[in-house]
Design brief:
By secondary structure, this protein is mainly beta. It has a single domain (about 5-159), classed as Regulatory factor, effector binding domain (Multidrug-efflux Transporter 1 Regulator Bmrr, Chain A). About 15% of the residues lie in helices and about 45% in strands. The protein is globular and about 45 Å long.
């Protein structure tokens, strides 16, 4: 799994957020609350959905599965003029990212991230940056399907 290195321009997103940990994963709950209401968001850019994680600084240095982080489900918008009730706006800062194309079942996700953070990153010449991590769920994303495809965006900086 070899990434492309891309520079992301800043994006503005509207969606829902929950605080969770890997030990107390509430991703399903978050998506179930978002999907029925996502069409209420106006001024959307494209049809891609974002699954975004905002980790505290140093989260991966002393990894603890019970450590909390914020997870978002969101879509890109042109402006923050109309934010539906119970939703929030967030700015996704730009910067350098390693972008991995992933095709496969969601239950293999932990293995994929172990490879990215444990094998690829240490030998890449890059270091992990303290910006949001996210997945782009585009037209080829099929929830729970082993043929599903998505992009995994990992924030990096040059060593």
């Amino acid at each position: 799994m070899t990434p492309t290195i891309q520079t992301l321009t800043p994006k503005i997103l509207i969606g829902k957020r929950l605080t969770m940990s890997f030990a107390d994963n509430k991703t399903t709950e978050l998506w179930r609350s978002f999907m029925p209401r996502r069409r209420e968001i106006v001024n959307t850019v494209g049809t891609d959905m974002f699954s975004m994680q905002v980790y505290p600084k140093g989260f991966f240095q002393n990894f603890d599965p019970a450590a909390e982080f914020d997870k978002w489900t969101a879509v890109e918008v042109t402006n923050f003029d109309a934010i539906p009730g119970e939703m929030e706006a967030v700015e996704l800062p730009g910067g350098l990212y390693a972008v991995f194309h992933y095709a496969g079942a969601p239950e293999n996700g932990a293995e994929v991230f172990r490879y990215i953070l444990g094998e690829w990153l240490p030998s890449s010449g890059y270091t992990l940056d303290n910006r949001p991590h996210f997945e782009v769920l585009g037209d080829k994303y099929k929830n729970g399907d082993p043929a599903s495809e998505e992009e995994i965006w990992i924030p990096i900086t040059q060593q």
